[in-house]
């Protein structure tokens, strides 16, 4: 197949994917969903933004504040390797700023129905192993300086894996599947400075590449978009961008990069990032039966949101109309007396014209009636919104109210039920996020196994609080592991709760650990660290670090499998020296006076 024919075929595939996304995900409404989340509700006089409130209440319950990874080996004799893998995995989660990217993808999943994470290595725009840095060495001065002139993402670094949130509006999925894991291909659109594309040695065929977007930059003015071909003023500074598509194809195991208006591939390489599938990880809370695109939370509650806005606008109108109004016969009350009537100051009397006629004919008050059940309208709709999203008042951090807005019961039993419901309602979404985090970590570690070929050093805490410095390479760590994210890590825990948990753990587990000859010192250290005002090292001594050069993985295994040293028996107390001045008493005399 000729290059031009293959390129034309991929352009047609993208157009079909865009049409399928429009039909299945209704992406033309995504901007409206964004507006509703951000509080821009057209046609509403007064809004109560439940879209924002519900999504912001959901995110803290499902994302991981500090994504902690526990690694377990699947094969024997790999426990030392699993310790190192666990340290590296947690280090990468921090360096990749995975928490930030996960939160952004969760927000996408709530608003558009689908959150997407893109995986990569060494470079944000394509990866060639022969041009990559083999590891995470800190001596990357020349390469790093060149890299930073062409790429600017803070969490994409040479020689390291990365995971970034991708805007669903820039992603097209193979329309023939119902799950992204089964997709033959996924296409990603991004915009980049034309000058950077031409300087990037990973791309070819860029000589005739033309800009697709131009920004005019004026000092003191915001950037405005402009299309090529229109005239420009001579005093304007221009920035030329090109819109590129990156396609990962599972069938050919290749990655293609091209521009829709260009007749050449900029990249047509073997896709080494296809590890256990395409380099994409989805987060979908509300899946569809016949499409990989999820259902938006905003779409689900938008009818109720519109109705709630109408009720709030009606309440505002009633408040305006319910201001006290009077009908006054012309000339019956002087302007000065009428001013008294409208004043906020208390008045004792008003004077009226004696010839105006009967008093009841001079002035008449008009008062509109407000529906007494109007407050319950809002409560009912808010309850409907929470039910649609699987949340209740308690999940919003509030106690349940009665049918007329009064307080409900607040007993210990209710508090227990509230906590159980919070856990149960959020479990499904939290599990979805946990699965996504585990997939990201597992695939990133497989990149480490493959491309970290230069020796690295990790700090491992072993038995009895011993700290070891271990030297390793990625291929040495390669094995089958289970990666687990604990769901409870997503729940915020106060310092007081952590102290109570640490003390309870010390009381219940400490005696068992001491009897079995385990590392009671490490357990005590954990408990003391929950009290920052205490100098832990002064109480139990500093951690012991073996001197010398870093050990290898085999030496680490021997150190971890060595039996713990037996505790030194206490020295016997010396016998008391005899006292020459002591008087020896006869037997029985020590009983005291008769």
Polypeptide structure, described:
- The chain has 594 residues and is of the alpha+beta class.
- Among the domains are: 323-367, no CATH class; 496-558, no CATH class.
- 39% of the residues lie in helices and 15% in strands.
- Strands 4, 5, 6, 7, 8, 9 and 10 form a seven-stranded antiparallel β-sheet that branches. Strands 3-2-11 form a three-stranded antiparallel β-sheet. Strands 1-16 form a two-stranded antiparallel ribbon.
- α4 (79-95) packs across α12 (412-451).
- It is extended, with a radius of gyration of 35 Å.
- The N and C termini lie far apart (121 Å).
Which terms summarize this structure?
594 residues; alpha+beta; seven-stranded antiparallel β-sheet; three-stranded antiparallel β-sheet; 16 strands; 39% helix
Euclidean distance between termini CA atoms? 121 Å
Query: Unreliable stretches, pLDDT < 50, 5 or more residues?
Result: 136-141, 219-227, 229-235, 394-399, 589-594
The assembly state of the depicted protein chains is single chain
Please describe the biggest sheet, giving its number of strands, its sense, and whether it closes into a barrel. Answer: 7 strands, antiparallel
* Secondary structure category: alpha+beta
Q: What's the helix count?
A: 17
Give average pLDDT, whole number. 79
Strand content bin: 5-15%
Extended strand count: 16
Q: What percent of residues adopt helix (DSSP H or I)?
A: 25-40%
Please describe the topology of this protein.
Elements (H helix, E strand, L loop, with lengths): L2 H23 L4 H9 L11 H13 L6 E5 L5 H17 L2 H14 L3 E7 L19 H10 L10 E6 L4 E3 L11 E9 H6 L13 E5 L6 E3 L10 E13 L4 E5 L8 E4 L9 E4 L13 H25 L3 E4 L6 H8 L16 H4 E4 L7 H15 L23 H40 L4 E6 L5 E6 L1 H4 L3 E5 L9 H21 L4 H9 L7 H5 L12 H9 L33
Antiparallel strand pairs: 1-16, 2-3, 2-11, 4-5, 5-8, 6-7, 6-8, 8-9, 9-10, 12-13, 14-15
